[in-house]
Amino acid sequence: MQYYSLQHQAPNVSFKEAVLKGQAPDKGLYFPTELPKLPADFIKNLATISKEEVGYTVMRPYVGEDMTDQELKRIVAETVNFDFPLVKINDQIASLELFHGPTYAFKDVGARFMSRCLGHFHKNENKKTTILVATSGDTGGAVANGFLGVEGVEVIILYPSGKVSPIQELQLTTCGKNITALEIEGSFDDCQAIVKQAFMDQDLKEAYQLTSANSINVGRWLPQQLYYFYGLQQWQQQQPPVICVPSGNFGNICAGILAHISGLPVQHFIAACNVNDTVPVFMQTGNYQPKASTPTISNAMDVGNPSNFGRILEIFGGEAEKLKTRFSSVSITDDQTKATIKEVYGGTGYLLDPHGAVAYRALADYQQQNPSQKGFILETAHPVKFPDVIESLLDIQIPLPEGATALNSQDKVSVKLAADFDSVKNWLLGR
Ligand SMILES: *Cc1c(COP(=O)(O)O)cnc(C)c1O
């Protein structure tokens, strides 16, 4: 399999190069030259196939000759070594829980796969690779945990001091080993700006082999298809599901659409957004107008210019009319999100996190118009990651998931730095 740049101004590359580069030199996103079709038997017998075998079969064509069967099988097995249960909320809606991984968010899947690919590709190189990543919360934890102990790779995470939740901060700052947390006295935007500048700095380029672990990397994007198959394995209805995905940068839902194009039966996809509604507006008006992001309680989706939407359009040959036959997108306010968390918890006992609640609202609204269509949401994070929102809405203490209690007893280790490029650069050069 080869990958081309969506800007069409850079040479095609293999899977390995696409993972190592992240973004094409012309700043375009990489996209596979072919969209694989899975055998009809595979889809028919899906429910009887192990999740490791499903993962291997789906990823095999994308990886091409850059990995042996054995290597790919090992990497897939390590990536998906936790549960992906489809839990019934009511007769119409189920929840595909993607938060049973080590950092309680779906980003674990992409981060674990990509980290192991990088580790594999760097095996025979003696120069260490340094991943530099800025996080507003979930990405950093998933990347830190995914890369923990991976040889030949070190991770440096920049996070905004005081602006991530307590569990998120512990996940970033207690790994040790090859993971370092830089606590930046500024905002997420500051962290991101510093990382961007670092990638262009000549002195740093000489001292380090820098790579990003950005969500646009094909090594993170493509394995996100796998849990759509795991959801369908557990789907008991005759009719295929409507799948509703809480969306920010649109990588997650784009992977689902790819799975569908490869043969996975899905009735319809809904991209549920918070008030950052660039895509819902585009679907209404045909006008794509990126804007600055607005902060919300589902903050992992506060994205004003979703990078992966271009990939979704590409899947449909750039034709918005074709896209509309399979895909719609809506915007949900914080007030609706809060009301939904309350209503669903009160009515069913199911506790949604703010991101899952945005998706639940969007799917329930869709079913008002299409009452015969059942479906599921992707629950992208454990509610415990957002205690402020949940505990102020519902008078409850969220029970800690297994493993999180251990986190609480560990000591935070971070390097505090001012929010300017020079202080980070000096620290990097002075180590
Ligand atoms: C990152 C994230 C999202 C958004 O996923 P995209 O692939 O960027 O659309 C949704 N929910 C949670 C909890 C996240 O961490």
Largest sheet, in brief, is:
6 strands, mixed
Number of β-strand runs: 14
**N- and C-termini, Cα separation:** 40 Å
Mean pLDDT: 94
CATH level-two architecture of the domain at 83-105 and 221-394: 3-Layer(aba) Sandwich
- Please count the helical segments: 20
Fraction in helix: 40-55%
Tell me the fraction of residues in β-strands, as a range. Answer: 15-25%
Key structural traits:
single chain; 431 residues; alpha/beta; Rossmann fold; five-stranded parallel β-sheet; 20 helices; 43% helix; globular; binds pyridoxal-5'-phosphate; threonine biosynthesis; lyase; pyridoxal phosphate binding; Ser/Thr_deHydtase_PyrdxlP-BS; TrpB-like_PALP_sf
Written description of the protein model:
- Its cofactor is pyridoxal 5'-phosphate.
- With 431 residues, this protein is of the alpha/beta class.
- The chain has a domain at 83-105 and 221-394: Rossmann fold (3-Layer(aba) Sandwich).
- Helices cover 43% and strands 15% of the residues.
- The strands form three sheets. Strands 4-5-13-10-11-12 form a six-stranded mixed β-sheet, with helices on both faces. It has a five-stranded parallel β-sheet with strand order 9-6-7-8-14, with helices on both faces. A three-stranded antiparallel β-sheet has the order 2-1-3.
- Helix 3 packs across helix 4 (69-79).
- The longest helix is centred in the C-terminal third of the chain and has 16 residues, at 354-369.
- The chain is globular and about 65 Å long.
- The mean pLDDT is 94.
- The structure holds pyridoxal-5'-phosphate.
- Pyridoxal-5'-phosphate (PLP) binds next to helix 12.
